[in-house]
Amino acid sequence: MRGVSIACGVLVAVLLLPLVLIASVTGSLATAISATTVNASALPALASRELGTITAVTATTCPELPPVWVLAHVEAESGWDSTAFSRDVNGGAAGLYQLNEANWRSAGGSPWPGTPPAASSDVLQPDVHLRRAIPWVCDNLRIASAHLRATRKPTPPLDAMLVCHIAGCGRVTGSKTGVPTAGEAGCDAGCADLVSGYIERVHALVDKYSAAAGGPGTADLPAPAPASEASTGCTADDPTGGRCLTPTTRHAYDEIARVFGLPGKSGGTLRSAGCWDAHAWNPTSDHPQGRACDFFPTAAGRFPEGQELQNGWRLAEWLRAHASELKVSYIIWQGRIWTPGAPDENGWGRPYNGGGVYDPNDATGGHYDHVHLSVSD
Q: Are 38 and 347 spatial neighbours (Cβ–Cβ below 8 Å)?
């Protein structure tokens, strides 16, 4: 939330004092937005890593706020730069949601030791910031929703939430529709243009992040040959240097190499791959059974971005599209796990929690740096 200078003076973006809600948010609104899915492949790297937190916090504290709107709102505010800081009439705004110190403290955050806040400040820690800021933003949404229902103003509650954030909730209550035009609620033409442009920007980002869940198309890629050989145990050679693979796993590896190029070789889209591994720390893993391979579109330990991220999504989507032919048991990628027959939950697959073995926030533990493929035999 940033203060904005306008021709007629200074517009200070401050939150109204808490109001008594006139009515609770309707179940129909919460139901409608719960169906909105997230296009996980379109997310910036940090947004992808924090999607699990966003989904959990909205589900437990603000079900009427769809995760895709959180993703878009933060993008509009900070571009998903958790260290972002901008000076304004309130001294400065920091972090993912660009909150000034007063609002950050009202959200339960710690006072800043200085301006701008130090790198170690909680306002600049992405997970902490979201866990505090999302409920605070939800308060704006609920205040605006109550006012809109009581006055029958036509503005959608989520748009009014944006007005609260960029210009203060007084612009919602003081305008005829809930979105101020020039001359309303102390808003001149510059203020009105700022508000309308901000709403349009967030809407565009909502469309970007919620259009057709999943990754980029794979229609241009050839289909794999179906796996036909019955499992005979871990009897096939592992081309990545491990002990052995099942025939089904080796078939999947060969088909991936045919379509995407041999991992680590010129002309391919995958940097490396690893299949059989003892995985002593995870005795239930498919790797020591020869039934799993990991494919790295980027360097191990790094969160992929740009073309590398798209390459990973292309592989994950191709495997999903041809799960039957390749006898796919499950795929893990970008902090999500997909299993044939299981419905998607607010994005591609379901949130992956590491199974108590891996750190789901780590590049490798969360399977951000590699696509994990397990086959059924």
A: yes
Give the DSSP letter of residue 288.
G
Can you give 21-81 as a three-state secondary structure string?
CCCCCCHHHHHHHHCCCCCHHHCCHHHHHHHHHHHHHHHHHCCCCCHHHHHHHHHHHHCCC
Among 170, 80, 9, 113, which residue's Cα sits nearest to residue 101?
113
Q: Is the pTM of this model over 0.70?
A: no
Are 66 and 187 in the same domain? yes
Q: For residues 318 and 154, what is the distance between their CA atoms, to the nearest angstrom?
A: 44
223 within a domain of the structure (yes/no): no
Q: Looking at residues 64-69, what average pLDDT do you find? A: 93
- Is residue 222 situated within a structural domain? no
Query: For residues 321 and 351, what is the distance between their CA atoms, to the nearest angstrom?
Result: 19
- For 158, the domain range is 4-210
If asked whether residues 69 and 181 sit together in one domain, one would say: yes
Q: How far apart are CA 257 and CA 273, in angstroms?
A: 10
Question: Could you report the per-residue pLDDT of 79-110, keeping only the tens digit for each?
Answer: 999 999 999 777 899 999 999 999 999 999 99
Cβ neighbours of 302 (radius 10 Å): 15
Locate tokens 């680590």: which residue? Answer: 264
Spatial neighbors of 195 by CB under 8 A, at least 6 apart, are 162, 163, 166, 167, 171, 179, 180, 187
Hey, what amino acid is at 251?
A: H
